[in-house]
Write a structure and sequence with these properties.
This protein is an alpha+beta fold and 257 residues long. It has a domain at 20-138. 40% of the residues lie in helices and 23% in strands. It has five helices and eleven strands. The strands form three sheets. Strands 3, 4, 5, 8 and 9 form a five-stranded antiparallel β-sheet that branches. The chain has a four-stranded mixed β-sheet with strand order 6-2-11-10, with no helix packed on it. A two-stranded antiparallel ribbon has the order 1-7. Helix 2 (142-165) packs antiparallel against helix 3 (174-198) and helix 3 (174-198) runs antiparallel to helix 5.
Length: 257
């Protein structure tokens, strides 16, 4: 092999190495807020990287969404994966993005994990190294429970859209489709449980944001008054937001029974 051909071979090898990434997978520990491991956990995730853009940073999805379910109490295993992409710096190696950590027993589906830790007081806490999530039981908090319904309906709709729009050459794995049906069924149960508890419960007046001017406070109060007059009960809001999805997902969720 000549020096020129060796240089070309090395260049192609480096190009191939920069165009393929291996994600080693992860074990996610899920517990209640006191640290006790919980069972029946669903994790929806995908892999995402950054794409070169001279104006602003953009991202690309290296994989479609997948669903992992806990196989032992408090442990969810996310499988290793291999991804091909344009070489650096056109596209960076993709990393794991957790879109939803959902525990039906807690009515909590508010936790999402990107490339850094974050937490929402009163709902969940994520460890700094992203290895564990602690979730709060939201049964007594209709505002946060409603947030779970929002997240769950959005994720299920996105999963269904991906599956219906996939070409035959990129069919969704049967286990992902089956888990999507299960999640659709859980959404219907969440909606029904929420209405069973909060249908006729009056919504509280939200706390006014700090730092508003007198004119802004007046406009904020008028907006809140109109909102509460139109939908005074938690059931009013839930039915407007989720009744249509519940009807649609009932047909999908029944396929898993």
């Amino acid at each position: 092999m000549t020096r020129r051909s060796l240089s070309v071979a090395i260049a192609f090898a480096l190009l191939a190495l920069s165009s393929v990434s291996i994600n080693r997978g992860r074990t996610l520990q899920v517990a209640d807020i006191g640290g006790t491991p919980v069972e029946g956990v669903f994790v929806v995730y995908h892999h995402e990287g950054y794409r070169l853009n001279p104006a602003h940073s953009t991202t690309y999805e290296a994989s479609r969404h997948s669903i992992a379910k806990s196989r032992s109490v408090g442990r969810v295993e996310i499988a290793p994966s291999v991804h091909a992409h344009w070489p650096f710096p056109i596209e960076t190696h993709p990393g794991l993005r957790v879109d939803l950590v959902y525990v039906p027993a807690f009515h909590n589906g508010l936790a999402t994990i990107g490339d850094r830790a974050m937490s929402q007081p009163g709902a969940f806490d994520v460890k700094d190294d992203l290895s564990s999530v602690r979730l709060v039981d939201l049964s007594d908090n209709p505002a946060l429970w409603e947030g779970t319904l929002r997240n769950l309906s959005s994720i299920v709709a996105q999963l269904i859209g991906e599956q219906l729009g996939s070409p035959p050459s990129r069919r969704v794995r049967p286990e992902t489709m089956a888990s999507t049906h299960v999640l659709a069924g859980y959404f219907v149960k969440e909606y029904q449980a929420f209405l069973g508890r909060y249908r006729n419960v009056t919504r509280p007046r939200p706390q006014m944001p700090a730092g508003l001017t007198e004119e802004e406070r007046r406009a904020w109060n008028q907006m809140v008054n109109r909102d509460l007059a139109r939908e005074p009960l938690w059931g009013d809001v839930a039915q407007r937001l989720f009744a249509r999805d519940a009807e649609r997902f009932t047909m999908i969720g029944s396929d898993s029974n």
